[in-house]
Structure formats: structure tokens, C-alpha cells
Design goal:
mainly alpha; 510 residues; two-stranded antiparallel ribbon
Length: 510
């Protein structure tokens, strides 16, 4: 079994010749020589990489409390940004009346916001590369909030949907950069727990949006579906005050400038840099969708699951307002079951990771393989969750009728949401482990592109589909598609190593 080459940070030598300098004192201060470093066991500063495995500037060496805080920051921001997608939907009826548009057109406020979220990697990559991750967090949310403010004060439908699009567009970088922050502060063996908690946020946001927006729209009208986003954003900006930079390149560059050391070599600049970034965030992801079976099938699978979730923004009002007579406020409460399903998925992924991946990780160390684990061991939770999706859909479709209590379709959303997040989390971990940091970022960008385009398109025809097929058969159609896609994680678990061996991109050899 071939081992992965060690990272450059593990192989860069420390300059041993520097230990022959003497301690010198000058009138303007002290200059500490490397002979003093030897005497005090302090290694010399490495201007191009971490200063050894215990470098205090390395975010992985920060205190546990600090690392947890820096994990919660992108989670909180992603919750707010994704909450902004669904919180609009309870106000669709008011939007129709005020601007004299159809239901499908009124839903453009949801679809264009979701489409804006899909551009996250394209916008985040150049910002993160040049300014660091901290700057992305500090700038994207305020700009997004300004467009949310504009949406709330819009006097015509065109300005409403344009502001909604740009609110999603400028908020989207936090969705793309958050995974990088987790990779900055947590080693791979602990990354599953951090990742699933981080990924809970963009699922919890859409789940709670209709609940919050429903009561706001019922009491104050559709404009008040936008104000909770601003209230939460204001609180989040205060929470960001202690935030530090976690991006390795930015930390090392600033440290070199602070100490007067030669900075690390810069990569391409200008048009060349833009070409590299577009390759990673747009060109390569699209290429991987069509040439890498792992990326293509997982992106299609997750894109479908995500689109069904967004289709529920139409289906839930049809069921709970149309069949069971809920008002707008109470019609958002069934979404709490989606949140419950997501929380159960978090528990499932963490427990499965402890039993499977961590066990293989420790075995790898015992066998002298340096912690190298086949990425297919990340797919156990996805294989379990693949059954929850069709079960939830068929259950929801065939019990959403007047002679069955409303609690039944509410409970049906739990296994669907559980399976959805289990599949998504496992796939994200699998793609990163398979393709590594650089190509893994492109693989996740491909996944995000498909996911949000599908999520934007699906609500535009969900109402027509339910009108023509009825609740039972429209939902069953989705259930049959979920069954057809169910084998994907199972096939990858069995044949993933063979597929990886034929990849056009550098991938893990395990």
C-alpha cells in the first residue's frame, strides 16, 4: 500500500548553522542569537513554514477553547446566511398580493438568493487568498446585511429579487471559507466531529427560517421576514470581535513582516493569480463533475437531496396549510422536525466516526502507516443515511391527508433530514480525504455548484408538480429517485479504491 508523501511543513529542515551566533546587545535593544536559542531550546524562526510541530502560531496548537470558538464562528455565520434563504418563504403570499405576481414568480426571491449562495467559492477564493479568512468573515456579512436591508425596504419586485440575489451572493463566502477554517484548527482525526457540527448550521438555518418567518409575516407582513436576519447579523458582528486569522499563508506572511524576516515566496500575481483561482473554483470543479465519477455521482446525489429540501418550502405549505388548515405562523412549526433530524444526524456521524474511522486511524499508526486510512471509511454514515431519504419521502407522501393526524407527516421529515445530513457530511469528508486540500477544494466547489443550482431551480416547479400529481404521487416520485440514487455510497465504499486509482487528479493512495 503506497503512502502519501509527507507535507512540506513536515520536511523543511531547521538551519543548524545558525546556532554559532553569539548573544549581542545594542543600545537600541536586544538581538537574540541562535546560540541563545540552543541554550534555551527555542528553535529559530522559520520564515517560510511553521516553526516546528509545536509552533504556537499554528492554529492547531491553540487552546481547545480557542479552537472551538473559531469553529463556532463560521457555523454561526452560515446559520444566519442560510436562514436568510427560507425565512422569506412564509411571506410569499404577501409578496404576490403587493407586487401582483404569480406564486412561481414570487418564489424567485428564494431561488435567486439560493443561486447567489452557489457563487461562494468563486468569490471567497480570491478574498481568502489575498486577505485571509478573517477578512472574509468581517466583510461578507455586513455587505450581505446591506442588501437584506434593501430587500426589506424594496418598493417594487425587481429591486426585491435583485437585493435578495446579492444578499446571498455576498454572504456566500462564509459557506466556502468555513471548511478551510475547520481544516486550519483541527487535525484530520478530530475533523469529523468539527465538520458535522459546522455543517449542521447550513441545515439548521433553512429548517428554522420558515418557523421564524412564519410568525413574523403573520404579525407584521413580508417585510418583517428580513429584519430577523439583520438582528442576528448585528449580534454576530459582536461575536466576531476576538476572531484571529487561521489561514497558514497569512499567518506566516504577517509574522515574517513583524520580525523583519524575508517573506515566504509569493505565488502568481495579477492575471496569473486570477487564472489559478478561477481554475480551482470554477473551471476545475466543472471539469471534475464530468470526468471524475466520485465527484459527479456524489454531486448529483447531494444536489438532488438538497433540491428536495428546498422543494419542501413549497410542499409544507401545501400540506399543512392546504390539508390541515394551519395558519402561516403555525405552518412553519413542522420544520422543527427537520432540525431534530439534523441533530440526530450529528450524533450519528460522530458515533460512527468513533467506531469506524478512528479505529482504522489508530490501527494505521500501529501498523506503521502513519495514520493513512482509506477514505471509504468516511462513507459509513452515508450508507446508513441513504435509507432515511426514501423512507421519509414515502412516509410523508402517503400520510399527508385529512384522515391521518398531522403529526405523521411532521414525523416523516425526521428520517429524511437525518439521511440528508448524514449523506452530505460523509460525502464532504470523503471528497476532502480523497483529493487532498487543493483538489478537494475544487471537488467541494463542484458539489456546492450543483447543490445550490438544483436548490434554486426546484422550488420553481414544485407547486406545479404537486398540483398535477397530487401530494402522494409527487412525493413518491421523489422517493423513487432517492431509491435509484441510494446505491451510490455503497458502490463507492466497495469500488472507491479502484475508481481513485484511475483518477486524472492526484488522490490519496490507500
Amino acid at each position: 500500500m503506497e503512502k502519501v508523501a509527507p507535507r512540506s511543513s513536515d520536511t523543511l529542515p531547521i538551519d543548524l548553522l545558525a546556532t554559532e551566533k553569539d548573544l549581542e546587545e545594542a543600545e537600541d535593544g536586544r538581538s537574540i542569537s541562535l546560540q541563545e536559542n540552543v541554550a534555551s531550546d527555542i528553535p529559530p524562526i522559520n520564515p517560510q513554514d511553521w516553526n516546528g510541530p509545536n509552533d504556537p502560531d499554528n492554529p492547531m496548537n491553540w487552546t481547545f477553547t480557542s479552537r472551538v470558538y473559531h469553529t463556532t464562528v463560521p457555523a454561526l455565520l452560515n446559520f444566519i446566511i442560510t436562514l436568510g434563504s427560507s425565512i422569506y418563504t412564509p411571506g410569499v403570499t404577501d409578496v404576490k398580493k403587493q407586487f401582483h405576481v404569480s406564486s412561481t414568480v414570487a418564489l424567485l426571491g428564494l431561488s435567486l438568493y439560493t443561486l447567489g449562495l452557489g457563487f461562494g467559492p468563486v468569490l471567497a477564493a480570491p478574498l481568502s487568498e489575498t486577505l485571509g479568512r478573517r477578512a472574509v468573515y468581517l466583510t461578507s456579512l455586513p455587505i450581505s446585511s446591506l442588501f437584506t436591508l434593501g430587500a426589506g425596504f424594496s418598493q417594487n419586485f425587481a429591486s426585491l429579487v435583485i437585493c435578495r440575489f446579492f444578499a446571498g451572493f455576498f454572504g456566500s463566502p462564509t459557506l466556502a471559507v468555513g471548511a478551510g477554517t475547520n481544516a486550519d484548527v483541527w487535525p484530520p482525526v478530530y475533523r469529523a466531529a468539527a465538520t458535522v457540527l459546522f455543517l449542521l448550521a447550513p441545515f439548521a438555518g433553512p429548517a428554522l427560517g420558515p418557523t421564524i418567518g412564519g410568525f413574523a409575516a403573520q404579525a407584521k407582513g413580508w417585510r418583517w421576514t428580513q429584519w430577523p436576519i439583520l438582528f442576528l447579523s448585528s449580534a454576530a458582528m459582536l461575536y466576531l470581535i476576538p476572531l484571529k486569522e487561521t489561514y497558514k499563508k497569512s499567518i506566516i506572511q504577517k509574522r515574517a513582516e513583524r520580525l523583519g524576516l524575508p517573506p515566504p515566496p509569493k505565488g502568481p500575481t495579477g492575471l496569473a493569480a486570477m487564472k489559478v483561482l478561477l481554475t480551482i473554483t470554477l473551471i476545475r470543479p466543472i471539469h471534475m463533475i464530468f470526468t471524475e465519477p466520485i465527484v459527479g455521482f456524489l454531486s448529483f446525489y447531494i444536489g438532488f437531496n438538497f433540491s428536495v429540501l428546498f422543494g419542501f418550502f413549497d410542499a409544507f405549505p401545501i400540506v399543512f396549510e392546504g390539508v390541515y388548515g394551519f395558519d402561516i405562523g403555525n405552518a412553519g412549526l413542522p420544520w422543527i422536525s427537520v432540525l431534530i433530524g439534523c441533530i440526530l444526524a450529528v450524533i450519528t456521524v460522530i458515533c460512527v466516526d468513533r467506531v469506524t474511522f478512528r479505529k482504522e486511524y489508530h490501527r494505521s499508526h500501529e501498523e506503521g502507516r502513519g495514520g493513512l486510512v482509506a477514505p471509504e471509511h468516511r462513507l459509513h454514515a452515508a450508507m446508513m443515511g441513504s435509507f432515511g431519504l426514501p423512507i421519509g419521502l414515502f412516509w410523508f407522501g402517503w400520510t399527508s391527508r385529512r384522515d391521518v393526524h398531522w403529526i405523521s407527516p411532521v414525523l416523516a421529515a425526521i428520517p429524511f433530514a437525518w439521511g440528508n445530513l448524514c449523506v452530505f457530511t460523509s460525502a464532504a469528508l470523503y471528497l476532502i480525504d480523497t483529493y487532498g486540500p487543493m483538489n478537494g477544494a475544487s471537488a467541494m466547489a463542484a458539489n456546492g455548484l450543483v447543490r445550490y443550482i438544483a436548490g434554486a431551480a426546484f422550488p420553481l416547479f414544485t407547486i406545479q408538480m404537486y398540483d398535477r400529481l397530487g401530494i402522494a404521487w409527487a412525493t413518491s416520485l421523489l422517493g423513487f429517485i432517492a431509491i435509484a440514487l441510494l446505491p451510490i455510497p455503497w458502490v463507492l465504499f466497495k469500488y472507491g479504491s479502484q475508481i481513485r486509482a484511475k483518477s486524472q487528479y492526484e488522490s490519496i493512495k490507500a
